[in-house]
Amino acid sequence: MITAKLNSLYEKYGYRQFKMTKFEPYDLYADNRDFLKSNQLITFTDLDGSLLALKPDVTLSIIKSNLGGEEKVYYNETVYRPKDDHYREILQSGIECIGNIDSYSEAEVIALAAKSLQLISDRFVIRISDAAFLRQMFETMGLSETAQAEALKLFSMKNAAGFDALVEQGKITEASANTLKSMVDLYKPFKEGVAELKKYAISNISARMADHLSQLAAIFESFGVLESIYLDFSLVNSMDYYNGIIFQGAVADIPFTILSGGRYDKLPEKMGKSFGAIGFALDLDTVGNYLTKIPGYDVDYLITYDGEADPPAKVAAVIETFNHAEYKVRTVRTDEVDHMEHKIRARKILTLKEAEKEAADI
After folding, report:
1. Are 123 and 236 part of one and the same domain?
2. For residues 360 and 362, what is the distance between their CA atoms, to the nearest angstrom?
3. Would you state the pLDDT for residue 242?
């Protein structure tokens, strides 16, 4: 099962399992709505009158429970969120790294994201952006908050031509527009992309940020995942949530992003905690829906027996013979075959006498 493989992977890198209840105090989510993907919560009143909510997120609970120390945890939890106009139970697996987050810590989390996808498919990709780098670029260019918001939207749509309209509106200079237009289409293997990104570093701070990304590339290479990682500045969603590295992951045969994560120091800061944090969540429900293959047969043998004439002990003996040989077997009375609630797909359908003959050869 994929969760067992993921758990084993995370434990090899020293992560411990984090477990929580299905619900938390409503205030935890109400006070941190800007960090949630949806404001719609399933709430109920506890026996003592307090208001609780079914958890829509795991990260908030992990940060809340941490008392300020370095911590590495993984989880397999069900979250409750609206999807397709209905509330859904969504199974997630993920990790969170908390503490003094340095280059190694960031690279390790992203490498584990890549290795997680590799357990699902040999064909996978991680896309990385840097919210801090873009913010620094915008501030150095003197963009207003409105212009920054419009620029981010253009990045998300890969709309380079849209910057010309911002120039005409006087919201950005032509030189700045040309720089950002070049960055919009920047989608390259990570090491190559970072080398090109250095050309766009227009301040000492952004130059140091580009050097930081170069360090990550070297660490990715040591982890053996560099070839599957790409730099992509169109990845700008959740900029209010993330304050640094942002990444998403996908695999072949699933037409959706199944993994997302990043650096989110703003969350513990808002909760009065002074440490950094980075993590990711993997949508196991989507993985299961797309990649779980329906077996050709429910059982190897469907054995029918006469409920009046065939001795039950003989039926049991035959079944045990097949079971010991690792075959899956379903029995049904002959007079019930046509009334089965669910039709059983069997590799072979045998009467008890036919089954006895086949069992003798096992």
Report:
1. yes
2. 6
3. 81
CATH of the domain at 243: 3.30.930.10
Cα-Cα-Cα-Cα torsion 158, 234, 283, 6, nearest 10 degrees, comes to 140
- Which one-letter amino acid corresponds to residue 95? I
Residue 293 lies in a domain: no
- How many Cα atoms sit within 13 Å of 51 on the Cβ side? 8
Q: Looking at residue 295, what is its pLDDT? A: 61
Alpha-helical (H) ranges within the chain are 2-12, 26-30, 59-65, 103-120, 131-141, 145-157, 162-168, 174-184, 190-197, 204-223, 266-270, 284-291, 312-324, 352-360
CA distances to 15, 42, 185 from 111, in Å? 14, 34, 25
Which residue range is the domain that position 307 belongs to?
299-360
Look at residue 282 and give its three-state secondary structure. strand
pLDDT in the model for residue 68: 85
Judgement on whether residues 67 and 155 belong to the same structural domain of the protein = no
Residue with tokens 């619900």: 23
Query: 94 and 173 in one domain?
Result: no
Asked if residue 107 belongs to a domain, the reply is: no
DSSP, res 339:
G
Burial class (CB in 10 A: 0-12, 13-18, 19+), 49: exposed
* 154 and 269 part of one domain: no
**In order along the chain (362 residues), what is the average pLDDT of each group of 10 residues?**
93 96 88 79 89 91 90 95 85 96 97 97 95 92 93 91 94 93 92 93 92 97 97 79 91 93 92 93 91 74 92 94 93 90 89 92 84
Q: Are residues 118 and 242 in the same domain?
A: yes
Judge if 74 and 165 occupy the same domain: no
The predicted structure's pLDDT at residue 240: 63
